[in-house]
Amino acid sequence: MVISIGVTQMRFGYFIRGKHKLKNKSVLLTFDDGPHPEYTPKILEILETESCKAIFFIIGSKAEKNPELIQAIVDAGHIIGNHTMTHPPLFALSRHSKVNAEIEKANQTIRALTGQKPVFFRPPIGYTNPIIAKSIKELKLTVIGWTLRSYDSVFRDPVKLTSRLIKRVKPGQIILLHDNLEVTQSCLAAFITEAKKKGITFVQSKENIPL
Ligand SMILES: [Zn+2]
Predict the structure, then answer these.
(1) Catalytic annotation on 20?
(2) CA-to-CA distance for 194 and 54, rounded, in angstroms?
(3) CA dist., res. 203 & res. 82, Å (int)
(4) Which of 44, 52, 195, 211 is a Cys-bridge partner for 200, taking CB atoms 3.0 to 4.6 Å apart?
(5) How far is the CA of 180 from the centre of ligand 1 (A)?
(6) Which of 32, 33, 152, 179 is catalytic?
(7) Other C-beta atoms within 10 Å of 65: how many?
């Protein structure tokens, strides 16, 4: 209940004016909750084969444990976004100092590993509130939501997930996926191939991410 209210509020920009719509018709893939030692490299391989560029909203503590994956994401021309340091389940109920620390520590980790300060932020479970909005403003980050939720954390069958995504994908969408899930890497290649057959184009250069 709490989660669905938060997501709804975020979608309508009730608390944060997140940028959710792309200015052109390409589809942008976004991957949350990584990096994952097994699945992130497989996803990078698929994106390379299909010439797609994505945003990876990484968790700082996982990035610290897998610095080579962060480097691989950057080297492949994708964007690293901030998804907090530890992805606390009660992030949206945290006080301002804790929210700031979670976001800032992840910023510092990304900066130390890539030499770049992240620009984009996605709150855990998409839940936002005035405290998070304040931190985002202070830390000069832009919130990126999504327009198509894959539900890859719910649909564990890659065939079902693939057909669900193919049915729903439309030009200009931002798709929420997770690079820490086996099902996501299992369905990604088939989804992209089938979507292209439907006439869908994907973002091909990070400079062209039209946000
Ligand atoms: Zn997450």
Answers:
(1) no
(2) 18
(3) 20
(4) 195
(5) 10
(6) 32
(7) 10
Distance 105 CA to ligand 1 centre (A): 16
User: Domains of the chain, with CATH numbers?
Assistant: 2-208 (3.20.20.370)
| Closest to 145 (Cα-Cα) out of 124, 163, 166 | 124
What is the Å distance from ligand 1's center to 117 Cα? 20
What is the pLDDT, as a whole number, of residue 17?
A: 53
Q: Which residue has the tokens 């391989």?
A: 45
Average pLDDT over residues 168-173: 94
Total length of the chain: 211
Ligand 1 centroid–CA 23 distance in Å is 25
C-alpha dihedral, 37 to 42 to 53 to 84, nearest 10°:
-20
Known catalytic residue: 75?
A: no
Which of 36, 152, 178, 179 is an active site residue?
178
Q: Would you give the distance in Å from CA 94 to the centre of its chain?
A: 22
Cα 58 to middle of ligand 1, angstroms: 8
Strand order in the sheet with 28-32: 142-143, 120-121, 79-82, 54-58, 28-32, 174-178, 148-149
- Taking all residues of the chain, what is their mean pLDDT, rounded to a whole number? 90
pLDDT band at 16 (very low <50, low <70, confident <90, very high): low
| 13 confidence band (pLDDT: 50, 70, 90) | very low
